[in-house]
């Protein structure tokens, strides 16, 4: 499998192969190669349907039956490759050559890559395109960069301060307490404090303890499983109690939540009913949705358990078996390699549930969670000892 974006005779070309056939898309217009014009390029695929967008002009290749997952398991290359042997002969039209020009703001699945000296895994013959200490986006929040003998300085917009315009004036004198985040509120010329796990109050200076975690939206808990390395990932299990008055929300996401190749097990609500989605590798299973009765807005606790026995999935709601499905009778992938990471209620501040889950779930969870047990552990997870923000005592 491969996906390649290249420049050919002045046109941008996208080629990808998902295992059965190669698809090729090419822009209608040529790019300007005068060295002074920046171009905006978007390319990719949804299933086996490709799209290519150059400066707002879109081309979409309608899908035909076939494979719909990109299975590469290789390094990601920008601008060239370390060896021409790494380039599939079908990925380019002619003999491959390295790109000459400037590239910035590369985002893969909505996550921007850091094109610095230290962040990539490797590289060669790459220099600073700007040629000055200012570079690109050195000054944040629309600040203007000026080159100086000592390096650079930033001229900041009215509501931002700091060496790189990184701090809001509304948070410059904030009273937010231990590990709290200051969120500027420009319309009210003020700010709010988002409290770290174990703290509460307007300024997050009141220490709290809880057994039941209360999620109020824009909340999350990230738990790292200390026994992950010893787990038999072919047989996973998670159970918990929850209550909510909302019809949508992500309750738990077992997985790294970093890119589409990560395995995961997810439990949440969609249209007021329970929704479970599991990805054991290469493809996402058909979401398992229970529609017998609503699980929201009743102000009552529900007990949910999801059991994975290789590719067989069982879902229990209030101790009743509601779903039982073999998501892959061929048993190509049988282990839930979730990386030892469990998110509850949502993801880190600034990461939208709808984007991280690629639309599987729409919103953060609002409600309460307690009694979380992983696998066949004899003890419940102590959510207090995880990391997170905006969590209250739900007892």
From TrEMBL:
Residues 130-166, 167-205 form the EGF-like domain. Disulfide bonds join 102-129, 156-165, 176-193, 195-204. The keyword Isomerase does not apply. GO terms for biological process: developmental growth. PROSITE patterns: EGF_1, EGF_2, EGF_3, LAM_G_DOMAIN. It comes from the Eukaryota. Keywords: Calcium, Disulfide bond, EGF-like domain, Glycoprotein, Repeat, Signal. InterPro entries: ConA-like_dom_sf, EGF, Laminin_G, Neurexin-related_CASP. Residues 1-129, 210-395 form the Laminin G domain. CDD domains: EGF_CA, LamG. PANTHER family: EYS PROTEIN (PTHR15036:SF93), PIKACHURIN-LIKE PROTEIN (PTHR15036). This is EYS protein. It comes from Steatornis caripensis.
């Amino acid at each position: 499998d491969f996906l390649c974006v290249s420049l050919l005779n002045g046109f941008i070309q996208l080629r990808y192969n998902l295992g059965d056939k190669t698809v090729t898309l090419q822009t209608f217009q040529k790019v300007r190669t005068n060295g002074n014009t920046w171009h905006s390029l978007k390319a990719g695929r949804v299933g086996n349907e490709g799209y290519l967008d150059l400066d707002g002009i879109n081309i979409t290749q309608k899908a035909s039956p076939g494979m719909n997952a990109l299975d590469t398991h290789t390094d990601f290359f920008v601008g060239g490759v370390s060896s021409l042997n790494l380039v599939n002969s079908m990925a380019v039209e002619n003999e491959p050559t390295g790109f000459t020009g400037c590239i910035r703001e590369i985002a893969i699945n909505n996550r921007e890559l850091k094109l610095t000296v230290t962040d990539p895994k490797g590289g060669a013959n790459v220099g600073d395109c700007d040629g000055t200490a200012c570079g690109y986006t050195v000054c944040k929040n629309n600040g203007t960069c000026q080159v100086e003998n000592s390096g650079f300085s930033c001229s900041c917009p009215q509501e931002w301060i700091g060496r790189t315009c990184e701090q809001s004036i509304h948070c410059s004198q904030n009273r937010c307490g231990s590990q709290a985040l200051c969120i500027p509120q420009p319309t009210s010329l003020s700010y709010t404090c988002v409290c770290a796990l174990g703290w509460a109050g307007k300024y997050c200076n009141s220490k709290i303890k809880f057994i039941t975690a209360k999620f109020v939206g824009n909340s999350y808990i990230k738990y790292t499983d200390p026994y992950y390395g010893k787990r038999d990932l072919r047989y996973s299990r998670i159970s918990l109690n929850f209550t909510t008055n909302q019809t949508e929300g992500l309750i738990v996401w077992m997985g790294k939540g970093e890119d589409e190749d990560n395995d995961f097990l997810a439990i949440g609500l969609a249209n007021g009913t329970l929704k479970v989605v599991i990805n054991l590798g290469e493809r996402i299973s058909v979401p398992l949705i229970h529609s017998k009765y609503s699980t929201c807005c009743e102000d009552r606790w529900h007990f949910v358990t999801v059991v994975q026995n290789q590719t067989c999935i069982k879902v229990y709601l209030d101790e009743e078996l509601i779903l039982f499905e073999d998501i892959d009778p061929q048993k190509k992938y049988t282990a839930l390699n979730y990386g030892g990471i469990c998110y509850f209620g949502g993801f880190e501040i600034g990461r939208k549930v709808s984007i991280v889950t690629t639309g599987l779930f729409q919103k953060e969870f609002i409600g309460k969670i307690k009694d979380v047990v992983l696998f066949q552990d004899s003890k419940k997870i102590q959510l207090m000892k995880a990391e997170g923000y905006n969590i209250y005592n739900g007892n």
